[in-house]
Amino acid sequence: MTDITTIALHFSKADLLRLVNIAHAAGDAIMAIYAQEHIAVTQKSDESPVTAADLAAHRVIVSQLAEQFAGIAVMSEEAADIAWDEREQWQTYWLIDPLDGTKEFIKRNGEFTVNIALIHQGEAIAGVVYAPVLNTTYYGARHLGAWRQDGQQEQLLQGCKIPRQVPIVVGSRSHLSPDVADYLNNIGQHEMLSVGSSLKFCMLAEGKADLYPRLGPTSEWDTAAAQAVLESAGGKVVCYDSGLPLTYNQKPDILNPYFIATAPGWAK
Ligand SMILES: Nc1ncnc2c1ncn2[C@@H]1O[C@H](COP(=O)(O)O)[C@@H](OP(=O)(O)O)[C@H]1O
Ligand SMILES: [Mg+2]
């Protein structure tokens, strides 16, 4: 067994807390830019926005991962130009979105996150999602569980203990698609919450919502860390068409298929 496989298969709570510290360091870099009066925004080739905060967080994460978990490949939203020929060989790698919810960051509503996931054989097996403005961190790993940390306090995530009569659905604040609107018309009575970034998955993990239908585009780095948190809490993320779990690095295209994420205990 190689060292890398050992890390993936024996990922410990101590390893997870090291990842949390890396996400917090990236959050500090983001907040230094958030505090500035003017935030310069550049459009990427796909017309999505990028700021100095995305790039600063990327650099912090990549350098600290290399220091603390040497030898594991990294794919980041901010360094995604890696040929399929090369990455299809990867059994284990870090998949990161240094700043998910860039539009929310620009709007300064706090609903943006740092995301670091460990992918092993196509599955998101560990992940950290940190919302620096909210001072809240969600983290989890398969076979360990999932937690929420506010300051020093840590709470185990297990979804909602008592099923709700009227389900709460979460959707994107900035990218709600017509397909989601159609889906919602067909699910009967529900309450709708609009939230930016990967926080939506975390709300399912902590029992604040029941369902997150994403019938619109996302990339693999948008979902991996939060999927790891949600699944470690007992929830699910499945492809809308196939009903199979959402997987990573199984195809050249980095876009995810449409998916449905559900809270622990969701049975409808
Ligand atoms: N047309 C599109 N193609 C690919 N990804 C898209 C997209 N529209 C939105 N997204 C993704 O949705 C993410 C934001 O999620 P939400 O809408 O749930 O807040 C964005 O992450 P970034 O902010 O990291 O770019 C972006 O990657
Ligand atoms: Mg993103």
From TrEMBL:
UniProt entry keywords in alphabetical sequence: Cell inner membrane, Cell membrane, Hydrolase, Magnesium, Membrane, Metal-binding
Domain of life: Bacteria
Co-factor(s): Mg(2+)
Binding residue positions for Mg(2+) 2: D97, D100, D222
Sites where the protein binds substrate: E77, L99, D100, G101, T102, D222
Record EC number: 3.1.3.7
One Pfam family named in its UniProt record: Inositol_P
Gene3D superfamilies: 3.40.190.80, Fructose-1,6-Bisphosphatase, subunit A, domain 1 (3.30.540.10)
Topological type in the membrane: Peripheral membrane protein
Amino-acid positions noted as binding Mg(2+) 1 in the UniProt annotation, renumbered to this chain: E77, D97, L99, D100, D222
Keyword Transferase: no
Subcellular location per the Swiss-Prot or TrEMBL entry: Cell inner membrane
EC supergroup of this enzyme: hydrolase
Predominant localisation class: membrane
Biological process according to GO: 3'-phosphoadenosine 5'-phosphosulfate metabolic process; phosphatidylinositol phosphate biosynthetic process; sulfate assimilation
A GO molecular-function descriptor: magnesium ion binding
Keyword Cell inner membrane assigned: yes
Reactions it catalyzes: adenosine 3',5'-bisphosphate + H2O = AMP + phosphate
NCBIfam families the UniProt entry points to: bisphos_cysQ
Function description: Converts adenosine-3',5'-bisphosphate (PAP) to AMP.
Similarity comment: family membership: Belongs to the inositol monophosphatase superfamily. CysQ family.
PANTHER family linked to this entry: 3'(2'),5'-BISPHOSPHATE NUCLEOTIDASE 1
Protein name: 3'(2'),5'-bisphosphate nucleotidase CysQ
Upper classification of the organism: Bacteria, Pseudomonadati, Pseudomonadota, Gammaproteobacteria, Alteromonadales
